Amino acid sequence: MSAKVWLVGAGPGDPELLTLKAVRALGEADVVLIDDLVNNAVLVHCPNARIIPVGKRGGCRSTPQAFIHRLMLRYARQGRCVVRLKGGDPCIFGRGGEEAQWLKEHGIEVELVNGITAGLAGATRCDIPLTLRGVARGVTLVTAHTQDDSRLNWQALAQSGTTLVIYMGVAKLAEISEQLLSGGLAADTAVAMIENASLPEQRECRSNLMRMEQDAQRFELKSPAILVIGAVAASASAGQACMLQA
Questions:
Q1: Read out DSSP for 36-54?
Q2: What is the C-alpha to C-alpha distance for residues 170 and 193, in angstroms, rounded to an integer?
Q3: Which of 39, 42, 82, 102 has the most CB atoms around its CB within 10 Å?
Q4: Which positions are annotated as active-site residues?
Q5: Is the same domain home to 163 and 236?
Q6: Greatest C-alpha distance within the chain
Q7: Any bridge partners for residue 81, and if so which?
């Protein structure tokens, strides 16, 4: 058997959002290396596989990336069908690109299987279209957390005219607000803060750029959560949104 690893996106949490291709890969798997944010309900599709947790969570004890690399390499060289199962999409803040490159450099065939990313699924559950004709002609996905502490070009983001979807931003709400306001976004720019995207316990807080840190504290917003910033975030689903007043 040729050595191969599948890098599979499990989606944002709702097991019904798993793709058919992901289900097929899991059904063929001998070994599944699973991230913390993956809903364990999807493991019903790989009843005969060995499941190895390799979680990586900000601020928590995490599995070293080098160790994950070695595990994938070891099992692939044994001729096992290896699935690296990631929350969301493996190539959207999921290290799928770097893992694929490393495996290829070591002679391992790689196949990437896309998953629905949390920013899209969470917004959709809140009736927020990330693009909307005449309102938002594009969407920009960014992370507020970087490994090397480098800073985003917030001014460029503020002036992009696109819907901003910010991942891993709960701990940096003050900085995000300050930088986007300094970059030229209006204080009343709509913001939706969405916790546990696509899960039954999903929660949503609608606010604006000026008030979002204060509202998040009152709402007790916790990770994992995404921020949707832009005019489309004013599209409210009245029964689900928690509208906090100043």
A1: TTS-GGGGGG-TTSEEEE-
A2: 9
A3: 82
A4: 35, 56, 168
A5: yes
A6: 62
A7: 4
In this prediction, residues 200-215 reach a mean pLDDT of 96
Residue 243 φ then ψ, to 5°: -90, 110
Give first-to-last CA distance, the chain, whole Å.
62
Clarify whether residues 30 and 95 are in a common domain. yes
From the centroid of its chain, how far is CA 162?
19
Query: Tell me: the pLDDT tens digits for 117-159?
Result: 999 999 999 999 999 999 999 999 999 977 667 789 999 999 9
Record the tokens describing residue 101, joined without a space: 């490159």
230 touches 208 (CB < 8 A): no
Among the listed residues 40, 47, 44, the one whose alpha carbon sits nearest the alpha carbon of residue 13: 40
Question: Which residue shows structure tokens 């970059």?
Answer: 183
Boundaries of domain holding 101: 4-113
Domain match, 31 and 131 both: no
Same domain? 138 vs 90: no
Structurally, how many domains does the chain consist of?
Answer: 2
Prediction pTM value: 0.90
Q: Hey, what amino acid is at 139?
A: V
Instruction: Kindly list the strands in the beta sheet with 4-9, ordered across the sheet, starting from the edge strand earlier in the chain.
Output: 50-53, 31-34, 81-86, 4-9, 109-113
